[in-house]
Amino acid sequence: MERVRRRLPSPATGIAFVALLLVLGGSAYAISSVHHADVANQVKTLKTIDVRMNVGAKPRVLVHVGPFTVKGWCLHSGNPVQNVLTVAARTSENDAAIEWTDIFGATNRDPDFDRSDGLIQITTDQESGTPPLPAGPFHFSADMISRSGTSLTLQLAQGQRLFSDNSSAQKACVYYGSAAIHR
Asked: The domain containing residue 133 runs over which residues?
């Protein structure tokens, strides 16, 4: 039995499998209705995202491709022991489109995603409890398409206070997953 456990697929194999499903298009795993026949279904690049940050750190770029920038940050909520995790996207090009599903399962879309929209919040979560317990992973996703032909599919998760039983060693905010870049 021990020999079998050592031969289980790696996380990289899982990410490659997701990329394959995205390349195949009409699969049940296709993430968004934003994609249509005019958008190439071939994944050009699959980027792994693993960002770990402490409370109050500067917002970090999770992925930047073409006109799209996706940032994550972690701030105190006003209650000094509870953190707020947020992920938001912006575009530098007018007439793009974005669809996203937050960690609570609510789906939203903006079919006219413009520079003037600034940062559009994809997901946010505030911890609860005093002290807050480790929580996550909480999954969320987004699809973005630009007029110039860049498209981006995000499959991400966030977690709070992970990777240690010792509260002083835990990472306050963690974002991880993958970004499939098309075209």
From this structure: 2-182
